[in-house]
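Subject: complex prediction, re-run

Hi both,

The earlier run crashed halfway through, so I resubmitted it with identical inputs.
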Amino acid sequence: MAGRNGKKSLFDEAMETFHRAADLIKMSPRVRLEIEEPDFEHIFYVTVDIRDRLVPLDEHERAAFRDLAPSDVKAGEALEPLANGWFILHRRALLEADLTLKKGVINIPKKGLFRIEKGGARKFKAYRIQHNQVRGPYKGGIRYHKDCSLDLFKTLAADMTWKTAIAEVPFGGAKGGIRIDPFNYSREEIEHLTLRYVYKAKNLMGPFLDIPAPDVGTNGEIMAFMMRQFTDGEREHHKLRGVVTGKDVRIGGSEGRVKATGQGVVYCIEEWAREKQFDIKGARVLVQGFGNVGSAAAEILAAQGAKLVAVNDADGTIVNEAGIDVAALVQHVHGNPANLRRTVAGFTGAKAISKDDFWAVDADILVPAALGEEITGTVAERLKVRLVAEGANGPTTQEGDRVLQARKIDVIPDIICNAGGVTVSYYEWLQNQRLEHWTEGEVNRRLEAAIKKNYALIRDIARNRAQRTPLYDSRPYCVGKEVDVRTAAMVLALKRIEAHYLLEGFSQ
Ligand code: NAD
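This time it finished cleanly. Structure:
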């Protein structure tokens, strides 16, 4: 169906792979109708009281306040810097302060002249799309980002349904979040917003109903807030720990979860490299997005001797032909509280280039680990890599896909490549149900076996190589002809999902 301006929606475009695979497996029309739209689309609003802010004066406004006496406030402790250059004015800044205000403007030594902008109530749009639960409870990330929409969350929720089936974990698919730029809010405001989100969505969530996890703009800290809000005051609340995954290991999270998505990406790359007799040691790697997924994939690949040559993120792009020191870059991005946007920009061990030039850097492997729709047809024309390993969800457009195929650049599709996260989320959920704690070695051993087995099944479907090995049986999945790898992954997902409808039937 075409969108308002004649353009196809993201969801409709993404569902083309679904329909292609559904045709190939001759999916029953009723099953297709059951799966092709989400079960539930929840859109709601969350409100929160935000603090007063200090907004820097523009150049032309400053002249009128040149003589304003400096104010002595507890700036270090109580002025919280935001990524847009503003500060949150916590009330404790005023304790023992010596203040001079003129028309609401304050002069803070070493920081400058600021207008005090009054805080107050704000409203944000929130979503939880529950796509399908035939294989198990709804499961999927929570995204805090300024560009969110129903169309995007429907697409990502459906992706989770395919991914949980491919990873063979007993979950369905969901996705949700809040339309907000989290970097422009204080830690306390984000906490309050998260609590309010759970307050509103509480009747949708539960360890056997719908299980959120971190995604772009959220992390283990936010999962902890969610778990507390959901479980506090409940009888037998320890049984409810599995309501969210991606928690800190000290409060019921799993060893290996933080790195799991990046680790899964690397297990897929290892399988690709084994087949192509390609040596990861010395391989040149490009990474887009240096958050949870991108930084973990870069660290693990670097530990295997690969060379990270360039990184692009939302706020900068860097290159170093001799190889970027990954540990130093992780420290610069994630270990430095002054780096408010957690960006690679400003890293001294590499030089800055434009995003446009990033795509054309000569390398072997590209790991897109940022947002969707980045690898367009134009970008795909410029790439000088052999493999695109999709850490992000939906990073390649349809046109990008066609160009990659035509240029014989291999792709490991997102629904298997980044399935490591949800796989270890399942291990976390299992440990929560059993009140157990597994070692990182145990987690990675299971993850490696799961990813590599399902990767091999997809490869067999793509090549129409029906076979039974000691580890797996691809005979029930092959469709009698060769198909592209993205369609092959969808065939595997749909056959596993369809089995539930075919064997269980439909309640009326
Ligand atoms: P994150 O918030 O930790 O990091 C996101 C990164 O993307 C940041 O480095 C940011 O600067 C960069 N970015 C944002 N906008 C960009 C733009 N326009 N251009 C270039 N870079 C941009 O998020 P994450 O958890 O690492 O997720 C990254 C991707 O992986 C997303 O597509 C997410 O859906 C997917 N994913 C994440 C997980 C997980 O376990 N976290 C699991 C599966 C898939």
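The CA atoms of residues 153 and 175 lie 6 Å apart.

- K.
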